[in-house]
């Protein structure tokens, strides 16, 4: 049998993964959630037809969304994670014994249920005693919060469907307020190549830059996202991800990571010229 | 009409580009050569079913195969290019007025003919007076050459078919001999993610490392190659791509590049931990 899952990256380009079996499919109140078992990528989580993560390459995404901030400020104690229902971001955070509290706000409880059952490799630390799960709208959750978190991670889908409000100026402004003095915001910042992704990349960066004194963008290579070239935003009230990187401190922790290291931490902020130019554009 | 070109990146993953028209198809004595006109990527050159380059993202490959070496040693005057029948590598080299001579050795004249006709955006500088075209086997061409080139670029296909001999120890040893005292070798060094590419990545690096005192690997993001994460090797008789990088000198040239800049030059050598580990393995 030939069974293939295909994702159209644009109308004119698509990526396909051979499927052994569709192990889960559910329409939640928010979105369609599917899990496939595949030869090439192990388990694959698909939401509304778009690959969210695969068992084989999720380490790249989760290393880069967590460790860059943690190596910049090893004093981070209180973390807010928005989205990330698969649990991978929380898994990486729980590796730091210095973190005291992780509030995770996921709008769709069905994603967490599916992940606990089918994606134990990411969901495995959701029961850590420091983790508080809130099945709420992250946009509302941050409203009115002040000076509470050392790190806010916006682990969102693309800005369509439930993820849309996580790309607004008001939301980023509330994140700013929710952060402590040394606070850091890390956000899923889309991709520079295909036009629709590049547009959202520019818009998110422009908004965040208008609020945070420090706002940079860093890249990672992930095989199963369109073009393989994706970005996270790093914004803060003062800490610089390169000048304040505490290389010795992070390396002394002895954390074993498959993608992240303190060299690629620095290297990831060196962007191609065409990406740098797009991020510097003032246009909408 | 729906017409799609598909490339199997592995038996279980494939990438497809919608085709407007197949504008060229020929079986040369060495390989099958096709050119497609596409909406997403403009003209696409395919050899034996594998994407070699596209009009839209070839700038990434050609920036990175040329400018890293040129910024490390701005004194490069004599260059040997092996493969690269599309002309893109030569195009970037001819931008340096300081280069006096470019020998380009392409085994398959049909690739050059097709590129001149359908890919003028890469083939446009093949008639530069400094360029000498040899339609010969690059492996034989370097045999017996001594102390002749400041830079050798191995712009090869994967190590199957005509490209296979360009991945042997003997060939790399002949490149070493063909280089001058400050000589640099840049080679297409495959990709770390899929097993068959990773195997060739490790083998090429191990062989080159056994011959050259300095041997490093650097990465670039290219949408139309499998996983988007590909590598070049940088080897030399003494020059270090980071310590000897002449940032001011290169920037003073005023070359406009869409991907390369002297920041990403340095950043590209910062590899993910799993890639670094694979390259350090001693196994075959």
Automatic annotation (TrEMBL), chains A, B:
Its EC number is 2.5.1.16. The active site is at residue 155. It comes from the Bacteria. The gene is speE. This is Polyamine aminopropyltransferase. It is an enzyme of class 2 (transferase). The keyword Transferase applies. Spermidine binds at residues 62, 86, 155-158. CDD domains: AdoMet_MTases. One of its GO terms (biological process) is spermidine biosynthetic process. It holds the Pfam family Spermine_synt_N.
């Amino acid at each position: 049998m030939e069974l293939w899952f295909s994702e159209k990256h644009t109308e004119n380009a698509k990526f396909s993964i051979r499927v052994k079996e569709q192990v889960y499919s559910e329409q939640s109140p928010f979105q369609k959630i599917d899990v496939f078992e595949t030869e090439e990528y192990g388990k694959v989580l698909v939401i509304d037809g778009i690959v969210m993560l695969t068992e084989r390459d999720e380490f790249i995404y989760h290393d880069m969304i967590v460790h860059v901030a943690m190596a910049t400020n090893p004093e981070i104690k209180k973390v807010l994670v928005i989205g990330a229902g698969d649990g991978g971001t929380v898994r990486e955070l729980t590796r730091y014994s210095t973190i005291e509290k992780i509030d995770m706000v996921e709008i769709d409880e069905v994603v967490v249920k599916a992940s606990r059952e089918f994606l134990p490799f990411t969901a495995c630390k959701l029961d850590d005693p420091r983790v508080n799960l809130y099945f709420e709208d992250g946009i509302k959750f941050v409203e009115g919060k002040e000076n509470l978190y050392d790190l806010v991670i916006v682990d969102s889908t693309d800005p369509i469907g439930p993820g849309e409000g996580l790309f607004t100026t008001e939301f980023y402004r509330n994140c700013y307020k929710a952060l402590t003095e040394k606070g850091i915001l890390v956000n899923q910042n889309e991709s520079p190549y295909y036009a629709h992704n590049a547009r959202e990349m520019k818009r998110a960066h422009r908004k965040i830059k208008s609020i945070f004194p420090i706002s940079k963008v860093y890249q990672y290579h992930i095989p199963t996202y369109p073009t393989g070239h994706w970005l996270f935003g790093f914004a803060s009230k003062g800490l610089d991800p390169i000048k304040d990187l505490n290389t010795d401190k992070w390396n002394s922790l002895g954390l074993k990571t498959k993608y992240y290291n303190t060299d690629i931490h620095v290297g990831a902020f060196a962007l191609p010229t065409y990406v740098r130019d797009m991020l510097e554009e003032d246009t909408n």
